[in-house]
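Reader question, answered in our methods column.
A reader sent in the components of a multi-part assembly and asked whether the whole thing could be modeled at once rather than chain by chain. We filled in our standard form and ran it. Here is what they sent:
COMPLEX SIZE: two components
ENTRIES:
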Amino acid sequence: MQEPEDFAKRLRLLEQDRAHGASELARQALKILADNALQGAAGSVDELRALLSRRAGLLAGARPSMAPLHNLLERWQCSLGELASDDMGRFRRAAAEEALALIESSRRAVQEVASHACNQLAQGSILITHSLSSTMMEVFRQHGGKGLKAIVSESRPLNEGYNLAAEISRWGIATRLITDAQIGLFAKEADVAMVGADSLLPDGGVLNKAGTYLLALASRDLGVPFYVACESFKLRTPEMGKAELEEMDPAELKAPELPNVEVRNVYFDITPPSLITGWISERGLIREWDGRL
Amino acid sequence: MQEPEDFAKRLRLLEQDRAHGASELARQALKILADNALQGAAGSVDELRALLSRRAGLLAGARPSMAPLHNLLERWQCSLGELASDDMGRFRRAAAEEALALIESSRRAVQEVASHACNQLAQGSILITHSLSSTMMEVFRQHGGKGLKAIVSESRPLNEGYNLAAEISRWGIATRLITDAQIGLFAKEADVAMVGADSLLPDGGVLNKAGTYLLALASRDLGVPFYVACESFKLRTPEMGKAELEEMDPAELKAPELPNVEVRNVYFDITPPSLITGWISERGLIREWDGRL
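And here is the structure of the entire assembly that came back:
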């Protein structure tokens, strides 16, 4: 089925977004669905439900590496089933409100996780992180006043690390910005390594921007604790099957085009649970993985 | 003492060269000294010896992370002490010939090392490497016909990996070119990891382009053997003291300038011997480090 151009355009933007993490994109998807709930062209509640369900599927499928997109949208779809369907206008408003409530709940979860994460940081801690995560951004915001120092890797190919550095620079956080290749050199200067997550796997492994695994390896080798800070929405259930590692346009590397040379641009890697010192969720710090966040 | 502009210019080029490895730069320095031996302005053999000794020191000091520069130039200086000094013209020619002989000996060493390295590769092996090394280039040249496949990381900030890919592309070697952040993702697809070296430390650790340590960590974690291929000229002696890790202009990263953010650009890291499966020198494969190459 052909979707109208305004929806198709927002879907494309979500697919191509490299500047935001998984939670933020999940909230953007919920906002699209809230708008569609209010304005989607449908002659009956059943028709609207079908339209919203189809679009929720398209949005979740746009970023298969990002569990919160799947989880929050599925939760929203479940909530639709419980809404009274006798009045079209009321159904529209209630469906939109459910989406906005989930956005709010996702934001609150980020704040709670960050607050627990800050409990692992001392006054003046040096924290190394990789890539851009709204959860980590919130950690820097909450703990910035306590002399927190940052080591931020650029996170090729599109250098989301520069965006993180720009944001925390405004909060006066002393930051060292490094190439991804220098992660091993600078990890040993950190007290703590901490990253957000695009998805958490059922075994506790973390799917996050490519390079995270390297930071975890270096942290382990150098005796620096490596934490994953992420909301419970990010947990993939076994039913979701094997996690896909999205590959993006090789042109993003701006490498020369050469015969016999294939440029690869896999965006995510998986860090096994054995390299993770602890998981920080709304529950607080989890030192032994027990299958939930 | 002020050096003449032609020497000062060649010294600066050597200092700023990011496109060549340590052995190649050592050979370039020897060529400069051969030219200076023939043409350096001096009224006596003693004066010429002093001039050449001073310039050899300046050239070796230009790249403190690169042991072969130090070792080959020191060897050359020793050889000068043994030359007859009764005839200025003969001394000049003999000193230049010694330098050219060392260049040739360095070239031969690279070929021998590469030939031993190829013995560790099977028909159709997939080899992952990091940065640009003339020794690794020679491995690809010698083994390219045997279906060797390559995984090459870009090696930020100046992407020497692109130069390596361009060269081996011409030899028809099927190559995957990746960001440094993807090293952990692609190491598991390799049969062998192999790098050159800027210096080898007395304990067998390797000083090489930043990111090498990450490749070694990933290789160890994934069960991929990690070899260092390097000529004996690259070994640092304990007398040379602690190895310096050169830091280059942060502008090379092309990162935004931000308040509170310091851009760091350390060029080299050190991979400890515990992560190295074997060292390959002119002697062949060394499985247990015994202090020499």
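What stands out: Chain B touches chain A through 48 residues (CB under 8 Å). The radius of gyration of chain B is 20 Å.
Send us your own complexes using the same form.
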